[in-house]
Design brief:
- The protein has about 500 residues and is of the alpha+beta class.
- It has a domain of about 90 residues.
- Helix content is about 20%, strand content about 35%.
- The strands form 7 sheets. The chain has a 6-stranded antiparallel β-sheet with strand order 5-6-7-8-9-10.
- Helix 1 crosses helix 3.
Length: about 500
């Protein structure tokens, strides 16, 4: 067993000095020395030579696993100290830390209905290119009985903005979103979440106006009229309470937004407040909860993303399991993780996705002191789920960037990087059939799935430094479906 663990560590850590230019940040002197020693042992065992790209990937993956294991260890140490002192701190639910820069890299998918948590600090935006919306009147507090659609006054305001309906491209940015390449900001506060419809230009977003206090607004981004405030959210101690403009309320653990309303997530269910249908409760299949980030058109397709419930996320054995999965990934083993599924809220159909929750968390050291030019010694480590790295770059290992789903002229479709990013599959959500658009044994480097005004979907994969376009989506969907690859019992 000890020899096996050594071989795994050796396979992950080896990286030649001449390949370190592909590694960011570069190898430290200590890492360089360790790499040389391990290369010698690797060669002595008669193992086949690896490419620079594989070696660089090994170093990056090992760093991620090492950080995760450090985070678990630091958390356990802190918990032990708190228990010894008789005081266990329970942190309040907070918005995720801010990215410094907001623009996603080219490999990030451009989709129409993401729900993206906002940074704490706004990204700089050129004044001439920003659409600033005036502040609307305060939320009305009139109480109405029953679970009904939005009142006639609100519906009339929305109807006034319907005249501006037209095809629109939405994309996430650090301080909310942009439409057709133009940043959108709100006069009342930072936009922290949003859900949008590319076919019409409608968007629902949440603006922070104070500690734990948010306004929910609905707008067509092409309208010259101000956005309509449809409700407000109060957040305290990990609990959120939504109150609609006409007085309907719902409480839960987090807020999700669609292009036509608000969803309040609970442990095993959610409350859907739709501006057309009104408020209704939706049950979630056992073993799942609603994923925190929705990078697709929930309102238009009727599908939302679910994540498997992790019974014990702080278990150190998970880090060892992830380490083994990383080794398998690097040597071409089939990824067996089905941690996510798209769920139809009306038919209750479940479409499993070959995506792993590995990589969704980022982290940073706390209480750090500089030891030397290359090393900081930190007493703690903080981990949190984020689509952004602490330095502002997109966290491309997060499931948010690996999946999108849209309504198209072919029906509802999902585009997903599955099997550890080796396969880019187009999935018909109405029957679960998969069609392989691109495959690369060493992994793809991202993709874009851009809707067009005629209802088509323009799919482009990034492979190393080049881009490859899917020439005809219709022809792909008319071909023989690829093997779904779903484990037994998931359909």
């Amino acid at each position: 067993m000890r020899k096996l663990l050594f071989s795994c560590a050796l396979a992950l850590c080896i990286a030649p000095i001449f390949a370190q230019t592909a590694i960011d940040p570069p190898l430290t002197p200590a890492e360089q020395k360790m790499v040389v020693q391990m290369q010698q042992q690797w060669k002595a065992q008669g193992m086949p030579a690896l490419t620079d790209e594989q070696l660089a990937a090994m170093v990056r993956k090992m760093r991620e696993v090492r950080l995760n294991m450090l985070g678990v260890a630091a958390g356990m140490q802190l918990q032990a100290q708190q228990m010894q002192s008789g005081h266990v701190a329970l942190p309040a639910m907070a918005l995720q830390p801010a990215p410094i820069a907001s623009a996603p890299v080219a490999s990030a998918p451009v989709a129409s209905a993401p729900v993206a948590s906002a940074p704490v600090a706004s990204a700089p935006v050129a004044p001439a290119a920003v659409a600033v919306q005036p502040a609307p009147a305060a939320v009305a507090a009139t109480q109405t009985a029953g679970s009904t659609p939005a009142g006639s006054g609100l519906q009339a305001q929305i109807a006034q903005r319907n005249a501006a309906n037209r095809f629109t491209l939405f994309a996430p940015q650090g301080d909310g979103f942009n439409f057709d390449g133009q940043p959108y900001v709100d006069a009342d506060g930072r936009i922290v979440k949003y859900g949008a419809d590319f076919a019409t230009g409608w968007v629902t977003y949440m603006a922070a106006i104070g500690p734990g206090h948010y306004l929910i607004k609905h707008q067509n981004v092409h309208s010259n009229l101000p956005p309509v405030t449809i409700g407000e959210v109060a957040e305290q101690d990990g609990f959120v309470n939504f109150r609609s403009r006409d007085g309907q309320t719902a409480g839960g653990t987090s807020i999700l937004l669609t292009s036509n309303g608000v969803m309040v997530e609970r442990d095993a269910s959610l409350v859907d407040f739709d501006l057309t249908r009104g408020m209704q409760a939706v049950a979630v299949p056992q073993g799942f909860h609603v994923a925190r980030f929705q990078h697709g058109d929930v309102a238009g397709t009727g599908y939302m993303l679910l994540e498997r419930v992790d019974a014990d996320p702080n278990n150190p054995a998970h880090a060892i399991k992830d380490l083994g999965a990383v080794v398998g990934d690097l040597f071409g083993a089939k990824d067996q993780a089905y941690d996510y599924a798209l769920y139809n809220m009306s038919t209750r159909a479940l479409v499993p996705l070959n995506l792993s929750m590995r990589g969704k968390n980022v982290g940073y050291g706390t209480n750090c002191r500089r030891q030397n030019k290359f090393v900081d010694k930190c007493r703690g480590y903080t981990q949190y789920e984020s689509i952004w790295q602490p330095d502002g770059r997109p966290n491309l290992d997060h499931y948010f960037w690996a999946l999108t789903w849209q309504t198209t002229k072919y029906g509802p479709l999902a585009v997903a990087e599955e099997n550890s990013e080796r396969d880019l599959n187009v999935i018909r959500l109405d029957n679960g059939n998969r069609y392989n658009a691109f495959h690369r044994g060493l992994g793809l480097n991202g993709f874009t799935a851009t809707p067009s005004a005629d209802g088509d979907l323009h799919v482009v994969a990034t492979i190393v430094f080049s881009k490859k376009e899917l020439p005809d989506l219709g022809a792909l969907l008319a071909s023989t479906p690829a093997a779904a690859g779903a484990p037994a019992g998931t359909q």
